[in-house]
Write a structure and sequence with these properties.
Number of domains: 3
Distance between the termini: 31 Å
Structural class: mainly beta
Number of helices: 9
Strand content: 25-35%
Helix content: 10-25%
Number of strands: 28
Radius of gyration: 31 Å
Shape: globular
Largest sheet: 11 strands, antiparallel
Oligomer: single chain
Amino acid sequence: MPIKPFSLILLLVSCLFMSCDPEYHSIGTNLLIDQVFETDIYKAPVFTYQQKLKKIQTDGLPLGQIGKINHTFYGESKGSITSQLVISNDPFFGIYSQDVETSETSDLTIIPENETVTSVYLEIPFYSNQNDKDNDGVIDKLDLDPLDSSSDTDGDGLTDLSESAVGTNPLSSDSDNDGILDNEDTDSSSYDAENRIYDIDSVYGNSNARFTMKVNELTYYLSSLDPNNNFESIQQFYSDTNYYDQGFYSTELFNEEIGLNFEELRFNYIEDDPLTEEVEDSTTVQYRFSPRIRVELEPSFFQKNIINAEGSSKLKNLDNFQNHIKGIIISAENFTDDLYLLLNFNAAGIKINYDYDYYEGYETSDAADDEILKKSTSYDIALGGIIINSLEKSGYDPIISDAIFQSNSGTPQDNLIIQGGQFYSKIDLFDSSNLNDNDELLQLRNKNWLINEASLVFYVDPNQPLQVNENIYPERLYLYNLDSGLPINDFLIDNTINTLSTNAGKKVFGGMLEYDSENKPWRYKFRITDHINKIIRKDSVNSSLALISGANISALAIKKAVNSKDQQIKLPATGILNPFGIKLIGSHPEEALKEKKVELEIYYTKY
């Protein structure tokens, strides 16, 4: 039976609403069937203000920043770390605890073990990228075609996938360097297929620069409870905390010039195992570690304070230990060139290698055949508990100072400077002072509009200050509610996930740096449709927003911060995690850039 015209219209209108998220379309639901729909764009006013952070809470961050990077416009950024150390409760070294070692016993195998430290290393891993989209054994950065497992990156006639499967090197046409190409070689067994190449993605500036790294014992006790509040609340530690400059340090554990090594760390067996006669264990890799900073610390300090303290109250529990050894300070200076490191302190630690005496009984009738041997082992101490990132910012351009002064006086700005850990922007929508009951909002509330999309677009200033050594820009910015520190609802309802790229989820909400046809930084776009709908419906208030660096969109733990007006604000951790900046066009630019000023773009359907 044919569908009647009236029924057809009713069906089309129903489909329109059923196909859309009702969360976005609750304005003007009393549609009449005979109305004509008109779609258009409306640009509402936005007011942007330059703000600066004086200090930020930097304990409990997901990474640590060490280094120095200087910029004639953004100024100089320096980072150092203060960290507590973490051990297990009442550890013992060797085979037996100190009580057992010193007990009166007839057991010949229980002897004083005389544990002696042989070496101590501080290890702090780099962040590395091991993405392999086509699962062919070659990381994307080195893969000829990261989306095709049949690609042949080394050009030897064998696919990357097939070489990974048989144990040859897909990045070398002659894996074992014997002069015979892999596609003709019948024996490449001398190549160690477990060797890995890493793509380090946490080092900025000149990776060949050298610098002096210093490690000192901390003498200031880091309490998790605030002594200024009678120890009744959790204590926060801020970026301007520098215990080294304040003189809270003693024993120097390391002070040498170093460079960076991005190779996989490989350690062979110490000696051959007599039970494996055909295998030379001492030439075989026993342990492999990702690239990292690895420096040798003063062993006598750990002999005295750790190994010799076995069985004492100093190591009985973590509280006692952290009163005994309060922590370490890690700093860097005397850089031959700018170098800034984002390091994985969650996996950092100190390894104490030591020898101990061991009674070797040969199970013969004559105990005289037995002997006391030396054995080697290690004990690991984690960097953990309270970890504070000291961040020093200085020397930025006077133009930024003037913009901050004008903003604090209520003048919207022509430019916005966004930089991790230092500069952010306050964003007000619709009105510069009366955010909730202004004429702009009143008019919107009286319109019969179905809002399809509402977006904030921030264009990159074409007169962008040059970066150091390479073009390093924030790959993403983050927009949030300034008063609460919480995400706006469009972020929360965006369920898009990207497991193949770092910091690329929540794609609908946006904030990623987009490039133009000439591959130059172009803009950052945020879709805030639900946020605007709620304001127009009066389901939420029109609070100020904040625009910050979005170094890691999943790192949204709220940190306290103090701005240049000595106001305490709430800052998601993502805005602290790198020192890189970008210059954007603000809401009130000069005439030549007015087409790219910040505006709230509302795409609507009128009914």
